[in-house]
Amino acid sequence: MSDNTPILELKNVDKSFGPIDVLHDISLKVRAGEVLCLLGDNGAGKSTLIKTLAGVHKPTRGTILMDGEPVEFSGPRDAQEKGISTVHQFGGTFPLMSIGRSFFVGVEPTRGWGPFKVYDRKTANEIAVKAVQDFGITRIDDGDRLVGGLSGGERQSLAIARAVHFGARVLILDEPTAALGVKQAAHVLRIVNEAKRRGLAVIFITHQVMHAMAVGDHFAVLIRGAIAADFRRGEKTREEITDLMAGGETMADLEAQIETYMQSHEGQPPPPAQ
Amino acid sequence: MNTRNSVLASSVPSGGESIKVTIGQFSRRPEAGSLLGLIAVFVFFALVGGKVFLSPAGYASWLNVAAEIGIVALPVGLLMIAGDMDLSIGAVIPAASLTVAIISGHYGLPEIVGISAGLGIGLLVGFFNGYLVNRTGVPSLIVTIGSMFGVMGLTLGLTVLIAGSTGVSLVPGPTIKAILGDFVGGMFQVTIFWWLLFVAAFFQLLHVSPVGNWIFALGGDKVSARNAGIPTERLTVALYMLSGFCAAFVGVSQVLVYQSAQVLAGQSFIFNSIMCVVIGGVLLTGGAGSVVGIVLGTLTFAIVNQGIYFTGIDPNLGSVIIGALLLVAVMMNDKFRLMAMSYATKKKK
């Protein structure tokens, strides 16, 4: 695999549910050690795009390539086995399960054989705690703690560490910072950088431009199911990106309207809408 | 999350005073609240009920009740941990009883045939429930209310059609009677020992085997569980079949103990089993609970249910006590659950 071959690439992907077109002609690529930020307002088709990448939906048209080879995912499990892991907004974890147990859900380490297989709590806890600490979350040191007792950022970190531990090469982070405070969000962004340093391809979905600018190498803005802009780090300012997300022209229109109003009303701004 | 774990965990040095850690570990266990409830209820009836309550006959009276409900409460509890309900058990119990009574009593076929058919009916209803819950996406509460009425109607209709009445009697042979329907020491139903066996098997399943983790995950977050590769649909069907099987087992043992089967015999089990499970600290919405808790909840329920007869209190007030107990138990369990979470966070700050 040369450095230039993207790990994951979408080529002209369309997705429609019956007569409703949700995604049009999406082309994206993400390489190892690179963070692709996918920006978009609510309803822009982000969730559908994530689900298509994660094998939940099959594209209606177009191809998905992994390491340059076309692939088809039979389901989320298949995508995961091929190295694509999705971490959802709330970490996709189980608040009332212990850290060790939730880390190994579905792939529990066992001792013994046949019907006498025993869930190996000690190994599970040790591995889980080590995996999280390797990501710099040293506050987690007891695998018996309940996930619900962790902060939002720690839960995200746990979920990311889990994905990496189980061999993820592409990490899809669905609004990981949306529900977090400033400090916690910074925490998660550090984890994203760490994942990137380890050579993972990260797809970071967000509508917070600040967070995207902090870690992104490559940006794509999604509007009404199509890619409205595609640019690299440093090519656009924060204001430009925000404008793009809000539908660019609409914002400019609004500003022009206010301008006209103020000119005709002796510099008074328009009264707030009732 | 379970007894075995917690016992091991207390041997791990985790800093702080050891007594504090033990209390913390205790409060983390889902059965913490139900243990306190059981002790309170037992002490109350031991004081009010006096010597008779503490005599072997006293123990037998509530253990017999506990065993029958307990065998059903275990799978109902597992289903609740997995985020589902099963009300159809109330119809499966008499359906299994009558199947045995009709096949082996009315038609006089070998008991093993009747018992196999009775247990088979439980598995069949369970499969049907699980399949419908998966296929339709209708809440399991509704699905199993539907199957409860369906099975009850069929049982009633077929029994009247075949036997001409709503009760069928059966005189079991000595071997089968000894295995499933006897009284040990003249008063302890053999069902109590079967219950212990079921408890051990369910403990193994939920807390020791890796499948237990799947059940917790299924109830915690179904979508995440499926994405993690857990065969959620097969697991749901298996849990319903387990529940149908256990209900049928109680039905079979009832007909062998009482030597007759009645169409409406299982009704009380529906709410009673749910109450045992909830008093035992299982979260109604799924994701948390333990087998030890379910057993403690069952014992608590049975003691109140029977203990009231040993006191001078009007037996009708027993229902009031059970109702109040249920509310207190749920509130206490919520409190303990919050403690379990916040305890862990504070420790490291």
From TrEMBL, chain A:
Q: Which SUPFAM superfamilies match?
A: P-loop containing nucleoside triphosphate hydrolases
GO-annotated molecular function: ATP binding; ATP hydrolysis activity
Record has Nucleotide-binding as a keyword: yes
State whether keyword Nucleotide-binding applies. Answer: yes
The UniProt keyword set, sorted, is:
ATP-binding, Nucleotide-binding
The segment(s) forming the ABC transporter domain are 8-249
Under the heading Gene3D superfamilies, the entry gives: P-loop containing nucleotide triphosphate hydrolases (3.40.50.300)
Which Pfam families does the record match to this protein? ABC_tran
SMART domains per record: AAA
Q: Spell out the protein name for this chain.
A: ABC transporter ATP-binding protein
Source organism (scientific name): Sinorhizobium saheli
Q: What is the lineage of its organism?
A: Bacteria, Pseudomonadati, Pseudomonadota, Alphaproteobacteria, Hyphomicrobiales
